[in-house]
Amino acid sequence: GMAAAVAPAYELDLDECLDAAIAAAKEAGALILAGAQGALSFKVASKVGLDLVTDVDHKAEEVILGRLKPQFEPKGHLFIAEESESEHPLTDAPTWAVDPLDGTVNFCKGFPYSCVSIGLLHRRVAVVGVIYCPSSDELYTAVEGRGARLNGARIRCNDVARLEDAMVLTNISANRNAKFLDATMRCFAATMPGLGSVRSLGSAAMCMAYVARGYADAYWELLVGGPWDFAAGEAILREAGGVLRALDGGAYDVMSRRVLCGVAPVVDILASRLKPVLDEVGDYADDDGGGAGGAGAADASASS
């Protein structure tokens, strides 16, 4: 009868999920390192806009999904991965959000900020996060309620309350649409008065990891490729004591492709600066691709 329908049609063991995510990230990381060292010849295929996708991206995703899908699909888990551009909407079921190589443009240039990002969402909240940076062999991990770690050691966000003491990270996506660029520059200008320092890494996941470990204090971005950019970072940042919000300070939505996150006092100040600008500019993600689903490739971000 009705009772049977209420029981979740999936199994969820967070330890098993974390172990599998770490193994998959490290396997993909080894492949990425080999690619970076030229052992894998890679051809750059073009993605819409100025974004880049490489053979390495696709091979890394095959490695990750090849490891996770056989283990977790029978347990009722779903998958959203960047290169596969999955179309199905996010549900409450356990959903893996995978970015095989976040910071593709960096990777192609040899700029050392790129990583593997594997997050597990349950009831639309990130409960497991793994970010692995192969070039520095740094492994960021988190499980809901158990804190965040870097190579096994606990990490915490900084205790920063004032904007003048803060380092803030932001990335400018690959979108060159005039409306988007205008919104970007106006938002950037609004955050700057009295701000300590600003940096741009070109990888959403690494920005979130760097805030979690205390290298920086907040990160915001107007448009990323999709939920695979944020899922792992969400778990890691939250477990390190950070907060995640919408750009205007409202509720964070992993599917929105927008984020403002970090240390609460700094996030609050940035939200108060960004909100009036965003209210004025309206919808800046105006492109031929339309909505925030797979069509997001039309304005996929440089942090994809």
UniProtKB/TrEMBL annotation:
Its cofactor is Mg(2+). It holds the Pfam family Inositol_P. GO terms for molecular function: inositol monophosphate 1-phosphatase activity; metal ion binding. InterPro entries: IMPase, Inositol_monoP_metal-BS, Inositol_monophosphatase-like, Inositol_monophosphatase_CS. It catalyses: a myo-inositol phosphate + H2O = myo-inositol + phosphate. Mg(2+) binds at E82, D99, L101, D102, D229. Its EC number is 3.1.3.25. Gene3D superfamilies: 3.40.190.80, Fructose-1,6-Bisphosphatase, subunit A, domain 1 (3.30.540.10). It comes from the Eukaryota. Pathway: Polyol metabolism; myo-inositol biosynthesis; myo-inositol from D-glucose 6-phosphate: step 2/2. One of its GO terms (biological process) is signal transduction. Keywords: Hydrolase, Magnesium, Metal-binding. It is an enzyme of class 3 (hydrolase). Belongs to the inositol monophosphatase superfamily. This is Inositol-1-monophosphatase. It comes from Bicosoecida sp. CB-2014. The lineage of its organism: Eukaryota, Sar, Stramenopiles, Bigyra, Opalozoa.
